[in-house]
Amino acid sequence: MGTRIIDPQPLIFDHAAQFFTVTDPNLAELVDLWSKKGLVRQWHGQIGELEAGGHFVPFPPSPPRYVGVNGMRPLAESILSETSMVNVVRPCWVSTLEPYNGKWYLSEKGKPCGHFDAIVIAHNGKCANRLLASSGLPLIARQMKRLHLSSIWALLAAFDDPLPMISIESAIPFEGAFVKGVDSLSWMANNTAKLSGLQSKGPQCWTFFSTAAFGKQNKVPQESVPSTTAEKVKEAMLEGVEIALGLQRTHLKDILQSITVMIADYLQSGGTCPDEFAVGLHNEFQPVKGHDIGQFPGLDSEGQINKACDIQLTM
């Protein structure tokens, strides 16, 4: 979960998770509690698929989509603040993990970082592989090497005027769309409408995600993005937005107020796993179907609602 706030206006952008859905009954109870506390709400705006040229097909309203009231990051911070079970330590770089007597012993360049009952590795493939090399779990280590990360560019753009949608066939302007048929673009979302619940006055803040292929073609270190690459990516992605909306080229530059580009690594495909502790122990991962930046179970366009959605990892 990531939210960027640019002062002084402020301009607010969700630049990681855009929304979430709920299928598990236990999680549904928790989300209901978050809703009562004012941490999350349903995103009622139009979401669907957008094809190049402005053809938009909305998703049905079910299952509900949820967003953080003030962005996704404040939700994560609120969850963290309400528990005594989590202690965030930073900066901390874990370079080695070793099993001993039923515990995991972590260290940073020989300096002990503590021992724990369980560990969760949420890192890119190379670092995860390095940590798992001494884990004593060769099957899981082997499976980790098969995971492919996609470098995805995120373009955060504020526009003085609403994006023109004269070619969009839906009577109601969409607020989020998975983009098809555009090389540089896979997702676009109107943060201003999403977070305020209405089309408020002032700049419109949009988040645009590139395709995985575009990210691979323009991959650079996340820590140091060359200005020339950032400018190239900005131009290509804005052009992709114009193609998706069916606008004339350079139209968006006239209403562009502020812009930021960043690159991050994401898992290429998402899915659901019915056996949470068996992944990697016996069978190989199988390909999954989904959008370029991940699949949201249960989200299909109205034209596809009767088609089976094969998004599970075969165990």
TrEMBL record:
<dbReference type="InterPro" id="IPR036188">
    <property type="entry name" value="FAD/NAD-bd_sf"/>
</dbReference>
<protein>
    <submittedName>
        <fullName>Uncharacterized protein</fullName>
    </submittedName>
</protein>
